[in-house]
Specification:
oxidoreductase, dihydrolipoyl dehydrogenase (NADH) activity, FAD/NAD(P)-binding domain, Pyr_nuc-diS_OxRdtase, NAD, alpha/beta
Length: 476
Amino acid sequence: MTSKSFDVVVIGGGPGGYIAAIRAAQLGFNTACIDEWKNKDGKPAPGGTCTNVGCIPSKALLQSSENFEHAAKHFGDHGIQVSGLSVDVAKMLARKDAVVKQNNDGILYLFKKNKVSFFHGRGSFVKAAEGGYEIKVSGAEEQTLVGKHVIVATGSNPRALPGVAFDEDKILSNDGALRIPQVPKKLGVIGSGVIGLEMGSVWRRLGAEVTVLEALPTFLAAVDEQIAKEAHKAFTKQGLKIELGVKIGEVQAGADGVSVAYTDSKGAAQTLECERLIVSIGRVPNTHGLNPESVGLTLDERGAIVVDDECRTNLPNVWAIGDVVRGPMLAHKAEEEGVAVAERIAGQHGHVNFNTIPWVIYTSPEIAWVGKTEQQLKAEGRAYKAGTFPFMANGRARALGDTTGLVKFLADAKTDEILGVHVIGPFASELIAEAVVAMEFKASAEDIARICHAHPSLSEAVKEAALAVDKRSLNF
């Protein structure tokens, strides 16, 4: 079997991998990308977890379920009368699948446009070879590639409960949670992280009774405490039942559903009976089938590939990015690392600032933040000022009929440099971009306070929160 040689071989076609491949090709490298995802028809479906069973399909279902809830509960406030409202889950899932396929096809188009050679199958190391590393592609037809540089972007897998495997019917990962064929009467969720809350929100809006069991004693521990409290209040009001500080015991799946034995925060034995159970307790790096030992690629105790600050592994010309390495498991973090690595291969100075990577939870209200939380600043002993502004005092939010939440600025007490911005409320995922830009340019709260923001707009809440840092908010 003859091998095909490339300047750059990318293993994995998720957000990190496909972006790395495109940027490498733009820089003039002969580039290949290997990815094994496939559609029901067996055709290639690049885009990784994000496109196929993560970011994209979950947002499609969140939008559909939010539309349903608006029609059921809020259209009347606008004078719009709806009768005979029902939900066609099959059609909703079909729309979600169509959105996913559009993204799959878009990536294949981008590969063709940028002259990236795409190989459908699982990529694995074989050995170090003359001119780089030999990579086997196991798919419909086995092929061998040689890459001078190799970028590993194999992503992550959902973490299962010990002794409780995913069957994607009763015990669900993010994959199965996106394919529930009808609205369950009772849905259990273990873990109040991003996936658990988003998927719990989808099925709660459609009529399920949702109970979230969280082992930690605090809700959304990584989020600013003030924002987390606001979120807990909002979600509880909507109907999500959230139990904190629980200890999960035996989980049994049967023909009629799932039984979860647990101890509550007071030490009392409890049982949750539900039709289906979503397990959302984090993700683990995916190196299954990569065969790292064949070339001596170093992994850490979590199974992640060990890299330095520039995503270099212990092997010359082998790089790793995204969920399979250290740092936050975020699609946009993976993309930034992919671009940076391609540029470093070209001798340029690729750059990723971990301090300005935004985080988003696409619930309703949305939650988004960048930089430090108030509890982190307190722990560091850093002197700071805080300013907040509620959406209930924002004209555009009132017009939308969505006034839950607030914008919060944290700035250095002496220099006024923005240290963190936290948003809970409508379109928080979009509003946070201004804060990311501001922090990347080392802006002060005063800088944002003096910039003219369009009226009426939600962005005015960002300006007002910046003004509030100096106690001079104008509309509250």
